[in-house]
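Hey,

Quick one before I head out. I ran the complex with NDP overnight. Inputs first:
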Amino acid sequence: MTQAVVIDKTEDQQTVTLRDVSAADLPEGDVLVDVAYSTLNYKDALAITGASPVVRSFPMVPGIDFAGVVRDSSHADFKVGDKVILNGWGVGEKHWGGLSGQARVSGDWLIPQPAGMTARQAMVIGTAGYTAMLCVLALEEHGVTPDSGEIVVTGAAGGVGSVATMLLAAKGFQVAAVTGRASEADYLKSLGASSIIDREELSGKPRPLAKERWAGAVDVAGSVVLANVIASMKYGGCVAACGLAAGMDLPTSVAPFILRGVTLAGVDSVMASKAKRIAAYDRLVSDLDLSKLDAIATELALEDVIETAPKFLSGEVRGRIVVPVNPSLDA
Ligand code: NDP
């Protein structure tokens, strides 16, 4: 028996409890993993609160990511004792996830825990940080360099934004951090932000084009915030868009694309190829000062996950929330 957060739905009523599950309850899969660390992501908060229809079948164990140790495997790439990481693939949405002592998944979804990174560090980074890395890679693929100009990061005090700010600053970029929380200015500067922008500045009705300000952008917000970012890109700039914290819509025009050659690069972490994941984690190891990850981490016990989830939706979470499930496995 192990403990897991379990979401049940009867008729239209959703309930979430922490309860015992056995290995026999776990879904099909060719690798059984003892979870060392999991995390609480924005999407997990949507699942646990039921604020958005993220969960596709019930009962469901949320947790879109975990790092742990293989307990049993019939997959050719993994053997007992291997340290592994999982992000996405519908885990925590369609397949039981990481907010559990154990997870049984397809070995095709796992990647090896990179050398030089602990399970805890992997999960402080988590899906949010790995997505931030994918965004930075997208900017690089579109030719954005520190010489191109300043990069704007929206939702900077959140998970994706905090890691994006750290990554970009470490690479020598000037980072303009957009936040709705003025109280987080010192935190953002400590991560490497060179300037702080009040979210209000990007929340007004977007114009087709505004003054050219940024060479690149990492956007977690969507909606009017993303539209204002796009309108303010420099000629040839690139926006890596990965989130919808402000909304799913995008009230923009074609003007920035056809008059300034702006690129809107969509970033998805869930179905990204294994090769892309491994490349992203390699870069996270080489680019981030992993010893500084504690600056963005808050530990949360598994039993406190359910009551903490709503804080994501009210924008109260700073950085990343890491859940030590079996931390002694992280030796
Ligand atoms: P967090 O909750 O940690 O951070 C989101 C941040 O967005 C908040 O901290 C806040 O930052 C800002 N924010 C909140 N509300 C608004 C608003 N109305 N307008 C503008 N900004 C707002 O979440 P994550 O960083 O983990 O995820 C961010 C987004 O990225 C989510 O939409 C998530 O679903 C998405 N995502 C997408 C992935 C993909 O594969 N495409 C993978 C991972 C995440 P501040 O207080 O600093 O303003």
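The mean pLDDT is 97.

Talk tomorrow,
K.
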